[in-house]
User: Fold this.
Amino acid sequence: MSVFKRTTKELILKISDFFDNIEIGLLVFREAVKSYLEEDMESFKRHLEKIETLENNADRLQREIENDMITHSILPQHREDVSLLLNEMDEIIDTIKESIREFIVEMPDIPASINKEILSLVNTSACAGDELIPAARAYFTAPHTVREKLLKVYYFETETDKLSFDIRKHIFQDMKDIDLARKAHLRYIINHIERISDFAQEAADMLSRMAIKIII
Amino acid sequence: MILFFLTSGLFLGWSLGANDASNIFGSAVGSKMITFRRAAIIASIAVILGAVIQGAGTSDTLGNLGSVNAIGGSFTLALAAAVTVYSMTKFSLPVSTTQAIVGAIIGWNLFTGNATDTGTLSKIIVTWVSGPVLGALFAVLLYMLITKFKKRARIHLITFESYLKIGLIIVGAFGAYSLGANNIANVMGVFVPAFNLQELNLGLFSLSSNQQLFLIGGIAISVGIITYSKRVMDTIGGNIVELTSEAALVVVLAQSLVLFIFSSTALSNLMVRIGLPPIPLVPVSSSQVIVGCVIGIGLYRGARNINYKILGEIGIGWIATPVVSGITAFLSLFFMKNIFNIEVGHKIIEGVPESALMTGVTGNDMSEIVKYLLFGILIAGIILIIYYYLLERKKTRELKLSEEKFWKYLK
Assistant:
């Protein structure tokens, strides 16, 4: 029985670690974009490395958690849901890594005049992800509080959509001095940043369904 | 010859194990909280212990309903009940062995011209009704308690499920013990008046004639659990209403409590001592009780998700079982007596001691067989434990190796 107890504790820690990785990933993402906009490439590269490590850790933890749940027959009724949730949350950190890589590969030329808006977009999109983490943690300890925690995710996702729309409109309608290719490139980068909040919303929808299932 | 007459009882025991063990571990196995193998091992051991330690009370009640006074009669009744249970189990209907044997005893009473004790019969029927009701009440109360505790304690879901898993094993063992104690009368009750075996001294403890019979019956139940209960477990696990892990625990605990209450002589005596009426020691249908528990939880959670079609099928089984069993018993007794010339029982004449009419079994040959049987079970048990341990070890080692390979490849 002691072996079983140890596995349970280890699994709880692994799930918590997984969430930590996503949470830190979101923080580093903000810092990385800030460094890029300030043209501090040394910091940016350091942040990219950090994100790559966090993404690798999250992948490893996700596999270990799924493995442990199956081999030790833990949470048989909710196992599939939990695996899907972790997968959805892993998409967030995957997107963060992809976005940062896009920056280093494509080196988008972002006009200094929209730096503030881009930073705001990054922050709002990341906030949707941030708010998902306490809700996901609450699923395991206080499932009846999950839905109220998720409200903030939906709020930040809507805000991200609005900001993204405004920035794109500003780029395409007001910034006459930049060419269409550059505008399209900027739109592509903005869409990438926006995807973080989209994944957070998808995970929130799933989490909401899971919470109902566990409460009734 | 004695062993031949016992075969019908053993068959009935096997049917009971195949069918009723699903009521104990069906929810746990159906919800994948416990593997079938683990459930079968725990249930087998506990059911034998329950039958031998606490099986006397309920068999006395069946004896009052109809004291089958010939071994041929006991054989025929057990066979009729077993055939009824087996054929209904084949159709995946959770039938009740209790009702099958009571139907068969009434059939014997009708055949031999003995009057059925209506007092005992009504006591049995009242218990059949109150069993599921009590089960439903216990289930709702326990479910409320466990959900409130879960909400307040804010335990991590994984820790909570691990506690549930341990709880299901303990409660399942208690349930199997109660099943053995309560339902052994269905399997061996009809043989009790016809058997008078020598007390078997095993050093640490001794087994009376009835206990030796109950031990053999308990082993038959265990064989039924191991060989055939998985199919019925799958039916109980998810068909009536979808059970969560905590509901599975509650259902088993509520059902075990009901079975324990209706078979505990000590509890009944305690009630008398404190000035309350005694608890009737009656074999209760565990199938009925579990349905009561599941309905109780279903209603508490909002009755919309109850599968009424399956409930209807179960209800038909309840009425059909005693009727079919009674008719089968009556016809079988007729054939036994008139075609095979086997003595199946006499009318009990008032004033004449029953032993004067008894055509039963006495002597110590049977006790010797029981002794060797016990020794054999002990050896087989030890071999099984060692085999199980080695198998588990091999599996763990293989898993560890494959894990190492997997992570090595990934790196």
About this structure: Chain A has one domain: 2-215. Chain A is about 85% helix and 0% strand. Chain A touches chain B at residues 1, 4-5, 8, 11-12, 15, 60, 63, 67, 71, 73-78, 139-144, 214, 216 (CB under 8 Å).
